[in-house]
Amino acid sequence: MSTMAVPDIAVAPVDEGFWTRSRKVGLTLLGLGLLSAVLFGALATDQQARFTLSDDAAGAALEINGTIGAILFGIITIAAGAALLAGVPKRWFLPVLGVGLVGFVLSFLCWQVSAAPAGQNFMPLVNIIRGTFILALPLIFGALAGVLCERSGVVNVAIEGQLLMGAFSGALFGSISGSVWVGLVAAAIGGAFISLLLAVFAIRYLVDQVVMGIVLNLLAVGVTGFLYERLMQTDAEKYNSAPRFSNWEIPLLKDIPVLGPALFRGNIFLYLGLVLVLVIHIGLFRTRWGLRTRSVGEHPIAADTLGVKVLRVRYRNVLLAGVVAGIGGASYTLALYSFTKNMIGGKGFIALAALIFGRWNPTGALLAALFFGFADQLATYLGAISSSIPSQFLAMLPYLATILAVAGLVGRVRAPAADGKPYIKG
């Protein structure tokens, strides 16, 4: 068996001086901690903030005085910021950052939950975790589609269109056939169709990949919108009433406190998304296919010299990415909703941000998608408890989290070296 090494690419070190990335983030955390301890502590009430271990107000709960909790978690955030500002070993950066962000969020929640109207001053953790995963599902599938493309050297801005075409195809063919499985296959084919166009024009005809992705998104919006008005609106019973996947309960695991009801009583898309993260991660970093994919994305000339069919690898992975994204689109129409025009609503672009936030790594993309899903779920929860925060701001929360994560938390990242660069075989 032959082996192939991916050439290392030399990157000149950057002298950041005193204000390193770690210290800048530490200063930001320090400010957030002061905001939490002072402002959130002042706005919180002496009512107990209850975090129930169920999906309603009943049962066991973690309780803390609202004011004390807001100040205490604010101090934890201050401590994390001070540690980063003082300088910590590089391997401790992410754990300390995580502690600081969790402290800030908990301080905020102590304020909001304790200040909620009587009877609403509780947060059901099972509901929050379940909602986070449901809202993150299209982002997980979309980000994985981005990983498959960009690790091969093809920029995938068309995730939005792939998700949308998958949602539409799943709804249409699932309704006509009366079968969720037919709908699922149709969704995969719909996403692959958009990917095929991306592959042909970007790889074969060398069209600018970013421009092509935007065009394909507009094409998907136009085609699905036209067919929606001509078919689904005129006869929704026949064309837009697809059956839904039921929830599957996993014995024993479903009885684990909090996580069991939230994660192991879900539908096929939840399990499939988590399995795909594991499979793609192992595939990329532990198999010959993954080695060839990464070599094509980093140094296609060297890969070609060693006998790798660069264009074939790119075609195959871009099509596979469309299948994954198409299934992600079906998580809307075969599990939750009926199809509506442009129902993805920008989630494909958030998936692209999750891909960058996760550093082109399947596991990192999963964590980033969950971060954005939690922001979305938190906005829904705050609206339900009549939060004093304006509803317009709550609607912006997931997108603000996206901007802050990509611009402020990721720091300096490097995409695969050949990402977006067409390869012309000599």
From TrEMBL:
<feature type="transmembrane region" description="Helical">
    <location>
        <begin position="268"/>
        <end position="285"/>
    </location>
</feature>
<keyword id="KW-0812">Transmembrane</keyword>
<keyword id="KW-0472">Membrane</keyword>
<dbReference type="Pfam" id="PF02653">
    <property type="entry name" value="BPD_transp_2"/>
</dbReference>
<feature type="transmembrane region" description="Helical">
    <location>
        <begin position="92"/>
        <end position="116"/>
    </location>
</feature>
<keyword id="KW-1003">Cell membrane</keyword>
<feature type="transmembrane region" description="Helical">
    <location>
        <begin position="25"/>
        <end position="44"/>
    </location>
</feature>
<feature type="transmembrane region" description="Helical">
    <location>
        <begin position="128"/>
        <end position="147"/>
    </location>
</feature>
<keyword id="KW-0762">Sugar transport</keyword>
<feature type="transmembrane region" description="Helical">
    <location>
        <begin position="210"/>
        <end position="228"/>
    </location>
</feature>
<keyword id="KW-1133">Transmembrane helix</keyword>
<keyword id="KW-0813">Transport</keyword>
<feature type="transmembrane region" description="Helical">
    <location>
        <begin position="318"/>
        <end position="337"/>
    </location>
</feature>
<feature type="transmembrane region" description="Helical">
    <location>
        <begin position="393"/>
        <end position="413"/>
    </location>
</feature>
<feature type="transmembrane region" description="Helical">
    <location>
        <begin position="154"/>
        <end position="174"/>
    </location>
</feature>
<feature type="transmembrane region" description="Helical">
    <location>
        <begin position="64"/>
        <end position="85"/>
    </location>
</feature>
<feature type="transmembrane region" description="Helical">
    <location>
        <begin position="349"/>
        <end position="372"/>
    </location>
</feature>
<feature type="transmembrane region" description="Helical">
    <location>
        <begin position="180"/>
        <end position="203"/>
    </location>
</feature>
<protein>
    <submittedName>
        <fullName>Simple sugar transport system permease protein</fullName>
    </submittedName>
</protein>
<dbReference type="InterPro" id="IPR001851">
    <property type="entry name" value="ABC_transp_permease"/>
</dbReference>
